[in-house]
Amino acid sequence: MHHEVITPVPLIECGIAARMLPGEAASGDRHVVKFFPNGALVAAVDGLGHGDEAAAAAEIAVATLETFAPSSPIALVTRCHEAMRKTRGAAMSIASFNALDNTMTWLGVGNVDAALLRADADARPSRESILLRGGVVGLQLPTLRESVLPVKRGDTLIIATDGIEGGFTEGLTPGDPPQQIADLILARHGKDTDDALVLVARYLGGAPCAIYSR
Asked: Which of 30, 32, 52, 167 has the fewest CB atoms inside 10 Å of its own CB, making it the most exposed?
């Protein structure tokens, strides 16, 4: 008897490119990609400064985000803030994808930039930018406001630490593989004066556990 094997489509496909500040033994720039039922969390964390203390702060943030990944972005940043009080602190931008209603909720504190590139050539705007709030997670938390955006298959999220120069979305081919996009941004826009990290996440819209009809 022939059985058809159905391979589930993942919710997102990711590419990561990073490099350490020359001469340092550890990077303060870390990333999170964590799947949970009907969702996925992606984040980039930039521990203040560079070297071991920056890495220590970022590691605590990453562990907290991975442990509580299904929580809302506001709850996640608040938990990180509490867990990181004895560290240098960090900047971070996080995005939570929800397969049940095809949305992405994102939030940024500090200078980790993020943009969402629409796959639909006719979409207006074709690019969404995260609203960054001033502050340092672990030291001084601003009033947190998360934004919710609808996402469609092929939409591409790019998160970049401040070791990446501005304008990193220019001249990209949005349909390229996420790893190719991440490598290209690091090569074109990476600074030699800081740790640098780029995380690219493409929404594939894998089927959630249940299909809801509205």
From this structure: 167
Per-residue b or e along 53-67, where b marks 16 or more CB atoms closer than 10 Å to that residue's CB: ebbbbbbbbbebbee
List beta partners, residue 108. Answer: 93, 132
Tell me the pTM. 0.92
Q: Per-residue pLDDT for 213 more than 60?
A: no
For 184, which DSSP code? H
Full set of structural domains in the chain with CATH? 12-203 (3.60.40.10)
**Kind and range of the H or E run holding 13:** strand 12-19
Phi/psi region, residue 174 (left: phi>0; alpha: psi -120 to 50; beta: rest), is: alpha
Using DSSP, state whether 55 is helix, strand or coil: helix
Q: How confident is the model at residue 2 (pLDDT cuts 50, 70, 90)?
A: low
Q: What is the mean pLDDT of residues 75-102?
A: 97
- What sections of the chain are H helices per DSSP? 52-67, 73-83, 178-189
| Per-residue burial over 151-187, b = 16 or more CB atoms within 10 Å of its CB, e = otherwise | beeebbbbbbbbbbeeebbeebebebebeebbbbbbe
Please state, in angstroms and rounded to a whole number, the distance separating the CA atoms of residues 98 and 189.
30
